Amino acid sequence: MHLIPLPAFSDNYIWALHDGRKALVVDPGESEGVAAWLAREGLQLDTILITHHHADHTGGVAALREATGARVIGPAYEPMPEPLQRVGAGDEVEVLGLRFAVMEVPGHTAGHIAYYTPDIDGAPLLFCGDTLFSGGCGRLFEGTPAQMLDSLTRLAALPADTRVCCTHEYTLSNLKFAQAVEPDNAALAAYTARCQAQRAQNFPTLPSSIGLEKQINPFLRTGEAAVVQSAQAREPGSPTDAVTVFATLREWKNVFR
Ligand SMILES: [Zn+2]
Ligand SMILES: [Zn+2]
């Protein structure tokens, strides 16, 4: 099975999986690049998976469905380009012979879902849309900090070697913020240097992994003393519970330059 991030717009990736014959794409915000790739590789589009309703994740769905007859699967509770198969927590979808578990991960949007499969060529894989990014997390457009923290906590509980396929190349700007939160995190410094080298050659920094994110992503580290301390320095006197720390980090990141 081949895993490929197709670049779209300024910083999106449309993740694609194929077995040399049939392909799956996730969150096609546009259709032209995907159609050109399918033609170039001689692949048939079998299935489109959607994580949430934002246009940069759904804009290419109708055209691709029309051109290829691909099946479309998306979240149960979001406005979606019909027709599609709607799925939610506890559902499983079978695509290209793989079984994906559907997780509901509200926060960025109210009905955001993620797709997890425990074994592709020896390692698990997660399509998490705009919920978890490398070094960061999605903005809270439709959810509360408590909801987003709960969603991220469940993603963080996946196996350490889970490949994390996020939709945006936000890694370097996320890491700049992460370093402001945890200036003494050695793993974070090493990872930042590695990502800077990748981006200097225009290579993706993704996929990341759950094990790595737990070491470097402040939004998964709200229980770490250094992270709590930075949140308290930002909001003096604020409580130290995980939800408050998370909310402080998220608001800080919103205005961080
Ligand atoms: Zn989004
Ligand atoms: Zn997006």
Itemize the secondary structure elements and their pairings.
Blueprint: E1 2-8, E2 12-18, E3 22-26, H1 32-41, E4 44-49, H2 55-58, H3 61-68, E5 71-75, E6 85-87, E7 92-95, E8 98-104, E9 113-120, E10 123-129, E11 132-133, E12 136-137, H4 145-156, E13 163-166, H5 171-181, H6 186-200, E14 208-209, H7 210-216, H8 225-234, H9 242-255
Residues 52, 54, 108, 130 line the site of one zinc ion.
Architecture overview:
- The strands form three sheets. The protein has a six-stranded mixed beta sheet with strand order 1-2-3-4-5-6, with helices on one face.
- It has helices spanning 32-41, 55-58, 61-68, 145-156, 171-181, 186-200, 210-216, 225-234, 242-255, and strands at residues 2-8, 12-18, 22-26, 44-49, 71-75, 85-87, 92-95, 98-104, 113-120, 123-129, 132-133, 136-137, 163-166, 208-209.
- The longest helix is centred in the C-terminal third of the chain and has 15 residues, at 186-200.
- It is an alpha/beta fold.
- β1 (2-8) and β2 (12-18) form a beta hairpin.
- α5 packs antiparallel against α6 and α8 (225-234) packs across α9 (242-255).
- It is built from nine helices and 14 strands.
- The protein starts with a strand and ends with a helix.
- The chain is globular, with a radius of gyration of 18 Å.
- Helix content is 35%, strand content 27%.
- One zinc ion binds next to loops.
